[in-house]
Specification:
Helix 11 packs across helix 14 and helix 13 crosses helix 14. Among the domains are: about 110 residues, Alpha-Beta Complex (Aspartate Aminotransferase, domain 1); about 70 residues, Molybdopterin biosynthesis moea protein, domain 2, CATH 3.90.105.10. Strands 1-7-6-5-4-2-3 form a seven-stranded mixed β-sheet, with helices on both faces. The chain has about 500 residues and is of the alpha+beta class. It has 16 helices and 18 strands. The protein is globular, with a radius of gyration of 23 Å. Bound molecules: pyridoxal-5'-phosphate. The site of pyridoxal-5'-phosphate has 14 residues, from helix 5.
Length: about 500
């Protein structure tokens, strides 16, 4: 049974970093120190921010050697989430993912790795010359275009097949699909391994039973969360939690000092402080209202006749796992407008922006994704509701569907690695025309952004199937990125 006990147990700080910065903002203290704006900007949109933008001055501690206020804030974060140790990240989850993999994986070894990982995790594979033993998100027939959960049995098989002692899993996915972390953790620990969970999209987990529990409480050894993605905190702010004795905190700190700036922004850290204390003090109020808003929204969406917004129960049925109701998935499949022209997800996103001034997070092949948080207002939900119902009233279902339009997602096409990412990138390379790439090994990533997990990674065979898939994404106007030549006329391949 879920309870708020944890929040009641969190020990309050006498003065938070945010409060200290706010006090400094209004003080007469003169700045003979960095930054060069001297906290002297008097007007304009950055004036208030610059008044709080400092360097490691007396009383404000040093993130890379935290002993004072920043130590207390990081301990507070650990307490709040129930971790053993927590680190502030000012370079997003990206820095935490890089540091955690580098800290626990030995150079050149195998790592069990979810294929739908963010590119930062792939960069860690490159840095340490690791050999990824992929586990793939489940294929779910109803909604084949959304990545499903990772099957714990696949993790087990890959650990038994290889000598991997580190497992890296992305959960939740961009769309909010959560894997069974406790079963995965049990398997990993039976084999004396370490489980890292990229929970970049789940910093709001564990504060209310309407949302999934955090991997911090499910047995993961390291968990990385972007505060800025789903909670009210400035862009780039994130947390790395160490949750077990199996991880050497000093080694993680050493890698963080490599990947994070030596001048961490106090504005960013102040916003983390504000966010964490707001959660500790008011989570119940915010999350109860949030649940109400989402519940009302999902029930209104039952009136749609063409567009489809699956509610949490439907998603759980489809994906047979926990899902995050904060991610609103709007499916656009087999639809046409009143003139009989095919209506796509991209058109929905464009229409929402042009006609209703609603900007959504992501457009994929057959759906758009709207991200919500505890800061969304009732008015915001109402606007989205009305816009979707209005657009829906002008759509119709298509009776015949061209099968060519139905694509597998990038995770259904299994990678064919021939060498490590590092070998492919650092070895001899040559550019080849797109049409001549079949049967060659790529030296570049090709991915859809967002979410940014690769369709092909360096060191992998470029098959006819994978190239066809990429061409179709491109034709549909989706964001295919990665190669230096983004027209995809030429691809860098291994010589
Ligand atoms: C699954 C996942 N992990 C990690 C990241 C990186 O997070 P950040 O932007 O906080 O560096 C992202 C960013 O989109 C992501 O989607």
């Amino acid at each position: 049974m879920f309870s708020y006990v944890i929040l009641e147990k969190v020990k309050k700080m006498e003065e938070t970093l945010y409060e200290k910065l706010d006090k400094l903002k209004n003080s007469k203290e003169y700045a003979f120190h960095m930054p060069g704006h001297k906290r002297e900007e008097k007007t304009g949109p950055f004036a208030d921010i610059m008044r709080m933008d400092i360097t490691e001055i007396e009383g404000f501690d040093n993130l890379h050697h935290a002993e004072g206020i920043l130590r207390k804030e990081q301990d507070f974060a650990a307490d709040l989430y129930g971790a053993k140790d927590s680190f502030f990240l000012v370079n997003g989850s990206t820095a935490g993912i890089l540091a955690s993999i580098c800290a626990v994986a030995k150079e050149g070894t195998d790592i069990v790795f979810s294929r739908n990982a963010h590119k930062s995790a792939y960069h860690a594979l490159y840095i340490k010359g690791l050999c990824a033993q992929y586990v793939y998100p489940e294929y779910v027939a109803e909604k084949a275009f959304i990545h499903g959960k990772i099957d714990p049995q696949d993790v087990k098989k890959q650990m038994e097949k290889t000598k991997a002692k580190v497992v890296f899993i992305t959960s939740p996915t961009y769309e909010g699909i959560v894997s069974d972390i406790s079963s995965i953790a049990q398997i990993v620990h039976e084999k004396d391994g370490i489980l890292i969970v990229d929970e970049a999209h789940g910093a709001h987990f564990g504060f209310h039973p309407y949302f999934p529990q955090s991997a911090v409480k499910m047995g993961a050894d390291i968990v990385i969360q972007s505060l800025h993605k789903t909670l009210p905190s400035l862009t780039q702010t994130a947390l790395l939690h160490i949750c077990s004795d199996k991880v050497d905190s000093c080694e993680v700190a050493r890698w963080l000092s490599i990947f994070q700036t030596s001048s961490p922004s106090y504005v960013l850290m102040g916003s983390m402080s504000r966010c964490l204390h707001l959660l500790a003090d008011h989570a119940e109020i915010y999350f109860s209202q949030y649940k109400k808003n989402l519940g009302k929204f999902y029930s209104k969406m039952k009136n749609l006749t063409c567009l489809e917004v699956p509610d949490p129960a439907m998603l759980q049925r489809w994906f047979q796992t926990d899902t995050d109701p904060s991610k609103i998935i709007i499916c656009v499949e087999n639809l046409k407008d009143k003139e009989g022209k095919k209506f796509t997800a991209k058109q929905l996103a464009e229409k929402l922006l042009a006609d209703y001034e609603i900007q959504i997070e992501m457009v994929s092949e057959n759906y758009v994704l709207a991200m919500t948080s505890i800061y969304d207002s009732e008015e915001g939900f109402r606007r989205l509701e009305e816009a979707l119902l209005d657009i829906d009233s002008r759509l119709m279902r298509r009776s015949t569907v061209n099968m060519e339009e139905h694509l597998p997602t990038n995770c259904d096409v299994k990678a064919q690695p021939v060498m490590t990412i590092k070998k492919a990138i650092d070895g001899k390379k040559e550019k080849r025309a797109w049409k001549d790439c079949v049967g060659k090994v790529s030296a570049e990533y090709i991915y859809l952004y967002p979410p940014g997990s690769p369709i092909i990674a360096p060191g992998e065979m470029m098959t006819e199937q994978v190239l066809k898939e990429i061409s179709i994404y491109k034709k549909q106007g989706l964001n295919v990125l990665g190669p230096a030549d983004d027209t995809l006329k030429e691809i860098m391949t291994v010589k």
